[in-house]
Amino acid sequence: MKSKLLKLTVAAFVAMSTFMHAQTAPATLGPHIVYETFENWSGASPNVPTDWEIAPANTIPSSNVAQVVTTSTAVAVQSGIYSCKLVNTVASYSTGCFASVPVAVTAGTGYQISYYARGKGTINVEITDGSAATSTVNYATTNGQSVSGKAWHHYFQTVTAPTTTNNAQFCLRVKSTTTYTAAGGISITGIDVDSFVVQPYTITPSANLYSLQYTTASNGNSPFFGQSVLKTGGIVTAQILSSSGGYSGYYIQTSGANAWAAGYVYDQTNTPSVGDSVTFGCSVDEYYNMTELVSINNFVDVTTTQSLTPKILPSVALNSSTMAAEMYESMLINIQNATVQSYSANYGQGTISTNAGVDPPCTYDFKSGFYAPNGSATSGSTGNPGYTPVAPYPSNTPMCVTGNVNYEFSAYNIVPRDSADIKLNCTVLGIEKHNSVGANVYPNPMANELNIQLPFAANTVSVSISDIMGREVVAPVTTSGTMVNINNLNLNAGTYFVKITADGKTQITKVIK
């Protein structure tokens, strides 16, 4: 695994990830092999779609399937006269799958599945050889697609045909279904599905972030939406905690890029540090028009495996007006000399504006969890942000904010990584804080002892250790000088984060025990 040839190959790919406009086109979809509008139903009451509810893969009870037709109190079906309703109120896919007739497939080939859905709950797709679920490569493998609304929404997911069969069934699963109600007497129980289409395509061998992000589509969707790529990658610019405080992924970016070359990676398994170069395979999803790289596979942390020096990328300087653009989605940016226009303590969000409040404001977001050098990390809407603006606005002290651009609730916002990314009076630019200590943390992997060697003599240095869930497992050890030794570490095997603060500079390093 660490042969010279492999190192050169991986390093060459990472080098390719440095800024370049060479673009890889998405795969061309082949003719559909399944096209179902759920118009044909048969059987005793309750009816079932003629080409679905097919054994052996199907195990969903017929009572959980219903024929939907347009009425005066319902939104029209997506196409034709009928659509299909699936109900499963429990919080798991325990009722099995709702399967199509077996169709011919090519082993190892990727298939894009598109469908329309409405209602309330979570929906997932899979491909099966007729006896058990096989290697689906898509976002829904983990969490499925969240459905909530009266209008039809178009979903795209990808699967890979099993290598053990030339015939397969395509399946739908639902869980956590409830009733969605809206004004006008509209009430939708469960999840309605319509226009289910399966098309083959050849999975793209590799694509850089520019290819995955650059788009001319009015909705900002990636041209690879609903497809998979075998390899992409970039340099980690931020780690992300979920609203519950758990690890949920990271942002990556292409070195030297100023636009169209960053991405949000939804990955609860791998935990690269800021500055690490990583490569992986993935599927491309759009979560409410925010491009996400999901279903991560074949992950390689090149920086860790090859003992390379982390590369800390600078942020792109923008103002509150220019940052609100698709080309900056997921990128690490900084906004200088901004003033607060509004703030909501309930949600940890507010708006800031540059040019003394003249520029259109943008949203800044503290409600997502982040690591905070002051020891206070947010946890959802009830968390404690590293900085709480105080009214009246906009007479607050001007501030500089660094963070990644997120798209949520139809608006672009800047998400600081921790409180060191927020600077009152702009005294220090936040981009200098991650890994700026330059400490050497060893051994890694560790046993029961850890050493932190600083490149300078610090007047005050503090070291603490947290687990992957963000929980502090070793309280801060405070000292001074160039060396910190922590021994008698009674920790379970796993991944941990060492936070080092030395004379106002902060470094977060991942270690393995």
What features would you describe in this structure?
The chain is mainly β. The chain folds into four domains: 4-26 and 203-305, Nucleic acid-binding proteins (OB fold (Dihydrolipoamide Acetyltransferase, E2P)), CATH 2.40.50.140; 34-201, Sandwich (Jelly Rolls), CATH 2.60.120; 316-432, OB fold (Dihydrolipoamide Acetyltransferase, E2P); 440-512, Immunoglobulin-like, CATH 2.60.40. Helices cover 4% and strands 44% of the residues. The protein contains three helices and 30 strands. It has helices at 4-16, 209-213, 302-305; strands at residues 34-36, 41-42, 48-49, 65-69, 82-86, 98-99, 103-104, 110-128, 145-160, 167-175, 179-182, 186-189, 191-201, 228-241, 247-253, 262-266, 277-287, 290-301, 316-318, 332-344, 349-353, 362-365, 399-408, 411-415, 422-424, 440-442, 450-467, 472-486, 495-502, 505-512. The strands form six sheets. Strands 1, 4, 5, 6, 7, 8, 9, 10 and 13 form a nine-stranded antiparallel β-sheet that branches. It has a five-stranded mixed β-barrel with strand order 14-15-16-18-17. A hairpin with a 5-residue loop joins strand 14 (228-241) and strand 15. Mean pLDDT is 79; it is low at 1-20, 133-142, 368-385 and 428-435.
